[in-house]
Amino acid sequence: MKKPKSIFFLVYFLFHVILLVVSVYVNYRSEDFEFLLWLREKMSLMVWVSAAGLLLIFINMIFSGMDTRSAKSEKDTLNQEINALKAKMFDLQDATKPSTVVASSAEMSDDSAKNQLDQED
């Protein structure tokens, strides 16, 4: 994996770990009314953190799309290489069988000449 991508996934992982810890802490302190009022005052911070989470998800989607596009182009390249190798193999097989092709075409021309003579009679 490339270094920027590794750093991004580390940040993404840390974001989710911190989100989990804060969620557990808020759940633990949910009976404290003063804490809930303090938490209500920090609602704008929670909105910005949620927006940062959405940005991280968007970046993750971009990385996934880049990976998919890269894999598709690599697959297309490999398919072209396979087709080129198949063509070479077919050419090699053709090169080893010229006498049978010539003989069979000569037999066909003899048969067609006989058929034409039969039709003329």
General description of the model:
There is one protein chain. The protein has four helices and no strands. The model has no long low-confidence stretch (mean pLDDT 83). The protein is 93% helix and 0% strand. The chain has helices at 3-28, 33-41, 43-96, 98-120. It is mostly helical.
Write the layout of secondary structure elements.
Layout: H1 3-28, H2 33-41, H3 43-96, H4 98-120
Helix pairs in contact: 1-3
Helix/strand order, N-terminal first: HHHH
Overall 3D form = rod-shaped
Q: What is the tally of helical segments?
A: 4
N-to-C terminal Cα separation, in Å? 80 Å
For the sheet with most strands, the description reads: none
Low-confidence stretches: none
Strand content of the residues, in percent?
under 5%
Key descriptive features of the protein:
0% strand; 121 residues; mainly alpha
Short characterization:
The chain is mainly alpha-helical. It contains four helices and no strands. It has helices at 3-28, 33-41, 43-96, 98-120.
